[in-house]
Design a protein that fits this description.
The protein folds into 3 domains: about 5-170 and about 295-345, FAD/NAD(P)-binding domain (3-Layer(bba) Sandwich); about 180-295, FAD/NAD(P)-binding domain; about 365-540, no CATH class. It is built from 13 helices and 29 strands. β11, α7 and β12 form a beta-alpha-beta unit.
Amino acid sequence: MADTKHFDLIVIGGGPGGYVGAIRAAQMGKKVACVERAKLGGVCLNWGCIPTKALLHAASVYTEAFRHGAEMGFEVDPKNVKLDWSKVIGRSRNVAGTLNSGIAFLFKKNKIEHFQGHAKVLAGKTASGPCKVQVSKADEDYYKGTGAVSKDDVVITADKVLIATGAAPRELPFAPKDGKTIISSYEAMVLPERPKSMVIVGSGAIGMEFAYFYNAFGTKVTVVEMQDRIMPVEDEDISKEALRIFQKQGIEFRLGCMTKAVEKTAGGAKVTIEDQASKKSESIEAEKVLVAIGVAGRFDGLFDAALGLKTDKGHIVTDYAEKKDKATYATSVPGIFAIGDVIGATARYCAGGIWYRPRTEGMSDAEYQMNNWYHFVWLSGDQIVEQAVHNLDTMNWVMDANPVAAFGSGGRFTRPDDSELWDSFSINYEYPGDRIVSFMCRQIPGAATDVSNVVYGSKGECHIGAANAGSRIFDRAGKEVWEMKGSIADAYKQEHKDLVDSIRAGKPIVELRQLADSSMVAVLGRMAAYSGQKVTWTFATEESKLDLFPKDLTWESSLPKPQFAVPGKTKLV
């Protein structure tokens, strides 16, 4: 093993986060090393953003010639056009290679030592020594590979280590990629031959870029998306217009469909999908199946198991979750820091300590929502749609039903001098029979809710006053049949506890009554208000798994200071 070298900073990962961080640290006078298992530039430059744009440009030129060539003074006969696929792919690789060389030049200019190989953190910083990183020869698995230990390995040390290894494509749990028939964006970038047909699972940015590219060159493309619209993280208007344009180009879509199975065949694969509304199944044959359902942190073999690195749902945990703007991005291992995709999204959605959790293929509607409800409901009791959740009990009693959907707007606001923070919502609940209840709420977190509504329904009427004044229900004859009494705090805490307990007990949410239902209605309204999207009760109350809540349900847990949501802008995906 070679002699040990010591640095002020070791950066692991040579992508946009890693190489920029390494260069900046060197410019500040630090002695820096960067370990990258493959080519400098990471996924973005070599296998993502940059080369795909070269492919998209080729597709655009190709189709533009056919569609608008005559307008520009030349006509192209599609039957006589010769397509050199190897050059289409080759140009994309050349573009990436040129930029890759540019980063190497910047490293040399800033005196950054570049180690090519697989990095493994052997030790964090201790009182007795610095961080230790072993560099081995990397194997050929770009995303999930490790290293082969040998006598040629190098151990380098540093005062601090920055992890910037990015993310790897998620795979279907029942159909892992083989790199030939079932592929990821990595293989889709360099297929040696243009396939005649392709099924793309997922309609996000990656899926739709490749859908456009392959369709432009003549591949029959079918996109399968579990949501009811493509590009679900974009504004609904954009999704609608994009769908129209892509369909006009010849791309086929199966929206609101779940991929249930992928079976390899002699000619490629048979993909079985299920329409989530009708529950009808369909099989689609294709030469290639491109899985584009998102990414997860990339840190296979990066840490010695004895270090006990803390991770959560496929990402490295840092202090951002607690410190926000004052975060140092420290991991659970002393001296080790992490940035970028490997730590997941750092943007906060909504308020009350709510994290956005991405949806993955195979996850039920309820599981996806409950992963996010964990942050809506649990233990942000005074920051849910309204503090007196039982107002919704009375609302449902009067309407003699649960709502079928909710839509609205709202968010968290603050005065310019930060003197006051409050939540303000305007939510319309749709009930059976085309009945709508308008519900408005303005509250200062931790204080009483400012609500005033009179709801008229099939059983009678409900007066929902300010939280301190309570709520009252009158029957059709005008007789008071119920009045809220007791501690508001205890009431809403009990409701959320009942909701969690009932889900843990395996009871379908749709069978819950009163307390749990009102909590569900509250969450439904908040989802609608923050997202600006219409959210249906059916979507929100599908069968759920039981391991989505914390083991210990306590109300004393301190919540991080929330970021401010943008009313009607935050998307649920």
